[in-house]
Write a structure and sequence with these properties.
The chain is of the alpha/beta class. It is built from five helices and five strands. About 40% of the residues lie in helices and about 30% in strands. Strand 2 and strand 3 (about 60-70) form a beta hairpin. It starts with a helix and ends in a 5-residue tail after the last helix. Keywords: Sugar transport, Transport. It holds the Pfam family PTS_EIIA_2. InterPro entries: PTrfase/Anion_transptr, PTS_EIIA_type-2_dom.
Length: about 150
């Protein structure tokens, strides 16, 4: 019961050992696996497969990183703000990303469900992410709400 009440929904000013898109994905997988109690390797592989299909940018500085897991019963999110922005993508399509939303969905979800959740999160991120740590945590708790 207390695990449900005190779930971690945000990490603020995360320092990356490898200041790259791949480094951010690896650290995001590690942190999300810990927060969601999932296998880190499987989560990371799912995130990489999703990113290979194209990044999901939202707002000015955010990217939504998608993964699925058969272990999950309901969608989960973790909002990560980075201490320093990371170049996401390459060439002219690259974005300076300072916020990652890790979206983990149950493995049996439909594409329509995924798109509905992505649209909801993107709409909220378009309004901007607060900068104060306490406000970031409160904002992160609203990402899956209607």
């Amino acid at each position: 019961m207390f695990d449900t009440l005190f779930r971690k929904t945000a990490l603020v000013n995360l320092e990356l050992a490898d200041q790259s898109e791949l480094g951010a994905l690896a650290e995001a997988a590690k942190q999300a696996a810990k927060a969601f109690k999932l296998d880190e390797t499987a989560l990371h592989a799912s995130m990489l497969a999703s990113e290979a299909q194209g990044a999901q940018f939202a707002g000015e500085q955010a990217v939504i990183v998608y993964a699925s897991s058969d272990t999950l019963k309901a969608p989960r999110t973790l909002l990560v703000t980075l201490a320093k922005p990371v170049a996401w993508g390459s060439g002219e399509g690259a974005h300076a990303v300072s916020q990652l939303v890790i979206l983990a969905m149950p493995g049996d979800h439909s594409d329509e469900e995924k798109q509905a959740v992505l649209t909801r999160i993107r709409r909220k991120l378009d309004a901007g992410v607060p900068s104060a740590a306490k406000q970031v945590e409160q904002f992160a708790r609203t990402l899956l709400a209607e």
